[in-house]
Write a structure and sequence with these properties.
There is one protein chain. The chain is mostly beta strands and about 190 residues long. It has 2 helices and 12 strands; from the N terminus they run H-E-E-E-E-E-E-E-E-E-E-E-E-H. The chain starts with 9 loop residues before the first helix and ends in a 12-residue tail after the last helix.
């Protein structure tokens, strides 16, 4: 097998760019722009973490994803959680773990405990996870690489408070419906 020497120039640069285009390495002609090189193509990964230990990924407010959360009782028992997104789309399970602006998944928390990773804007929350009393249901947005989308050092999230009365608790206990879960967290 014969080997040819690479010629340095536009053809070699183009070849390297094509080979590296599927990786995390950026292609450059070697010129520095503004004397800075961004380590991430999407936002800036901060040293700050959320309470789960995930780094925050800071993006400008104008580009930031947003989430609204609505929680309603389900007639069969439990709670229906519905999400509304702005500047955000849920990635399919198994998506390559790389940050892309406005993409990722949502984590659902009940009273600070992660319950599920959501790849869709709807989830059925089992009645047993929300017993008698007032509970905080929080949805936080994550990039596919596991970083938390953030604006001004705060995670992009939204919260709904749910108060369960004795009547709802008794009804939920007697309901025989199985919860429909999407990627529950053990």
């Amino acid at each position: 097998m014969s080997w040819r020497k690479w010629r340095r120039g536009p053809l070699a640069t183009l070849t390297v760019c094509v080979l590296l285009s599927s990786g995390a390495v950026a292609c450059s002609t070697g010129e520095a722009h503004g004397d800075t090189v961004s380590p991430s193509p999407v936002g800036k990964v901060l040293d700050v973490t959320d309470e789960t230990g995930r780094n925050l990924r800071e993006v400008p407010r104008k580009d930031a994803p947003e989430v609204a959360v609505e929680v309603a009782p389900d007639a069969g028992g439990g709670w229906d959680v519905r999400l509304a997104f702005h500047n955000f789309r849920c990635s399919a399970p198994g998506t390559r773990p790389a940050a892309a602006i406005g993409r990722g998944l949502a984590h659902l928390f009940v009273d600070g405990h992660r319950i599920a990773r959501l790849h869709a804007p709807a989830y059925h929350l089992a009645a047993g996870l929300v017993p008698h009393g007032t509970h905080r249901i929080t949805v936080r947005l994550y990039a596919d690489d596991g970083t938390v989308w953030a604006v001004r050092g705060k995670p992009v999230e939204n919260t709904a408070d749910v108060t369960v009365s004795d009547v709802e608790t008794r009804t939920a206990r007697s309901a025989a419906a199985d919860p429909v879960a999407q990627d529950p967290v053990a």
